[in-house]
From TrEMBL:
Signal sequence, start to end: none
Protein name stated in the entry: Uncharacterized protein
Domain of life: Eukaryota
GO cellular component labels: plasma membrane
Matching SUPFAM superfamilies: EF-hand (SSF47473)
Length: 221
């Protein structure tokens, strides 16, 4: 028993040492695969230890991975949120740890969906919207319907969904950009439930047409 305690303590010390080194900015890398990721990362980070959107795309392309602009934007946005960085342009970058996760996720996604990463979307036939595979997360609920100036999402829907530990996609954001069109479309097509709320403070014509379309398309709303 004493022997195993000693082994366990050594292992715990080694883990703590690795964490301390990472916090000091010293990257300890184990394994040929992770080392190759680090070599690629450092090839494009210009010595800064981070990759912005353009650098990230070039690094992924060098590994024969070709995400869309919206996927790259989603990676940058997710990294900023996970690290608790302020929601502005200066926070839109990924660290080496983020980079490893995204590379692995893309490779797994290509493998799972039977895709060749060297094929572009334009070169492959398009599937119907509700059958199209996506590399983005699948949400429980898509919050469609009336947007500004309504606040039903923030005031009612989101607190309730969080209470029941349900995931959701909220298309009503302050810092909207064109890259979010594809992200929103993928979230909508992969959500388990489409929730459309229509308020009398807006005409909601587009939302009504969209809800009717998805209803006819046999999606749940």
């Amino acid at each position: 028993m004493a022997f195993w305690k000693r082994v366990s303590s050594w292992f715990q010390k080694d883990q703590r040492y690795i964490i301390d080194e990472w916090e000091r900015g010293n990257k300890l890398v184990y394994g040929a695969l992770t080392r190759s990721y680090l070599d690629t990362f450092q090839q494009f980070d210009e010595g800064k230890g981070i990759l912005d959107g353009k650098q990230l795309l070039k690094a992924l392309n060098s590994l024969d991975l070709y995400p869309s602009r919206s996927q790259v934007y989603n990676m940058l946005k997710t990294s900023a949120e996970c690290h608790g960085r302020p929601d502005d342009e200066t926070a839109m970058y990924v660290t080496f740890g983020d980079f490893c996760i995204y590379v692995s996720d893309l490779i797994d996604g290509y493998s799972m969906h039977g895709c060749d990463p060297t094929f572009t979307a334009a070169a492959t036939p398009q599937s119907p919207p509700h059958h199209r595979q996506s590399l983005t997360s699948r949400y429980d609920v898509f919050l469609g319907g009336s947007c500004n100036p309504t606040t039903w999402r923030k005031d009612t829907a989101i607190p309730m969904l969080k209470h029941y530990s349900l995931t959701f996609y909220n298309p009503q954001v302050e810092d909207w950009s064109p890259e979010m069109i594809e992200i929103e479309d993928q979230a909508k097509n992969n959500a388990r439930l489409l929730l459309f709320v229509l308020e009398d403070s807006t005409r909601s014509i587009a939302s009504m047409v969209e809800a009717a379309f998805h209803s006819g398309d046999k999606m749940r709303y």
